[in-house]
Amino acid sequence: MIGNKFKILISSDKIKTPNSGLGRVALDFDAAMIDASQFDFELSFLLANKPVNGFLANQRAEILTFWKRYFPFYLKKYDLFHASYQGPSYKIKGAKKTILTIHDLNFLFTKNEIKQKKYLKRIQSNVNDADAIVFISNFTYQTCLKHLQFPVNKIIKIIYNGVQLPKCEPVKPYWIPQEPYFFAIGQFLEKKNFHVLMPFMTKLEGHSIIIAGDNNTGYGKKVKDISIDLGIKERVILSGPITEAEKLYLYQNCKAFFVPSIAEGFGLPVIEAMSAGKPVFCSNQTSLTEIGNKHAYYWKSFEPEAMLEVYNNGMNKFTEQARVEAIMYSQQFTWQQNVKEYIELYKLLLEQ
Question: pTM score, two decimals?
Answer without folding.
Answer: 0.91
